[in-house]
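Glucose-6-phosphate 1-dehydrogenase
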Amino acid sequence: MAAFSATHCPFSYSYSASINGGQKQRFAFSSFSSSSSSLRLSAPAKAKVFLHQSPRDSHQTAVLVQDGVVVSEVTHKEIETPKEKLKDDLLSFTSTQELDVKAGFDGNENESTVSITVVGASGDLAKKKIFPALFALYYEDCLPKHFTIYGYARSKMTDAELRNMVSKTLTCRIDKRENCSEKMDQFLKRCFYHSGQYDSEENFSQLDKKLKKQEGGRVSNRLFYLSIPPNIFTEAVKCASLSASSGNGWTRVIVEKPFGRDSESSAVLTKALKQYLAEDQIFRIDHYLGKELVENLSVLRFANLIFEPLWSRRYIRNVQLIFSEDFGTEGRGGYFDNYGIIRDIMQNHLLQILALFAMETPVSLDAEDIRNEKVKVLRSMRPLRLEDVVVGQYKSHSRGGVTYPSYTDDKTVPKDSLTPTFAAAALFIDNARWDGVPFLMKAGKALHNRGAEIRVQFRHVPGNLYNRNFGTDLDRATNELVIRVQPDEAIFLKINNKVPGLGMRLDRSNLNLHYAARYSKEIPDAYERLLLDAIEGERRLFIRSDELDAAWALFTPVLAELEEKKIIPESYPYGSRGPVGAHYLAARYNVRWGDLDIEQ
């Protein structure tokens, strides 16, 4: 069997597959767009390929089946003659066990459509991220030929009011501004609104009727994006599953973090979701996994010979994962106070990056192979101890004639709140590759700058001939690989270099890949990549339930201890580099935070 999925981004592609009897067929397709009825075939998702012999001639048809639905049919003749049009027939089956593949279907029932429902459409996330990302995909011809977008929320709103709200947040690519207003108008015509309660099966049934009307008898594939508070996830999933699922295509649900507050609540949420959805229908989104530099991690490591041999305890002294924001909670204090910086950033964003960074080479780029390796990393990690954690909370500070508020000055935050707005932690992976290497995490709000980066500090050169040129500060001679995730994406390697001249003077220089200088194309937003992957059924960048369990198992004990002992967070001024305790934590493991280097 071979694996295929359907997608619509302009692209050219060829693929060899063994179909049912081991016979090799080569699939080669040219570039297509959403304005065409043609499809290209790629190979991420778990589909099956069946070989069908026509009784009237010798032509063979490769039938690609995914989630119980025939994705496409390609005849042997069409494969060998790319100029001929590929069939775009999408046939539905209620069972994946018995497939009766027949030819000769016509009309809308042979085509498919994707209906995307944004649940919580009136919220900030939907307005600022989800709708703009969907428009960007449409602008790039990455959405299917037939698609509909529905906003669903409790607010009373007309289709026209939704379109007006959405239009204010849409922008076109810097490098592609032609026909921008025309594209916006076309996109907005595909956007509709339905008002309803999140726990009302009747309201979702009404939505279902509207979706069917837009789908026009085609095979309906439905994607629900839950941009709502986690306490109503289960009810919304129940209603969508029972009253608005597709009857003849796939149904998928994107769930936003947080996925619980600890191991217990996460397990309860997962169990509740699985009452109505299968695991492969649940797409737990962590938008950091969709960022360009995070996705490039595996390419940097596995596609470059110079890095993989160095990726171990033998050459790496420590790894730092740093996240900082230069603003406070600013109105989100009520939500944030219930979770804190460890749950909000460390347990998901930074830990997912760590797992990708530290995993062993996967068997393939298949989603399950990659996620299997990430789970192995998480399960190999040493339980986090309280003494390896530093927490802080920002306080009011005046600078340049401006007074910045403290965390507890936020009206939505209790005055006696002990919720940390900063945390630093030292984690260890107890396996052969990483034994003894500290992985230092640091995340905070109201710090001196905004950024997210991965810093890999290599070991000192043994018997370095140039020690005298660096004096006693051997850290000055340490090579460092820096992957700047945001903003101003870049990868640079710090090396020691001779300063031109007659003397022997050394300095530290950067070999720099600055994305804005190297690539003229604007980097897509993380939500664009993740939404496209969800539509295509590609699960590589989404979190599996056992990944989630392993991640919570690491942090739940120390979170419980922080709350039970009522640990008072160390204060740090708004706009500073964070609490002093973070430096002592790093020094305990003979590490200096890389982002504090005066060169930066």
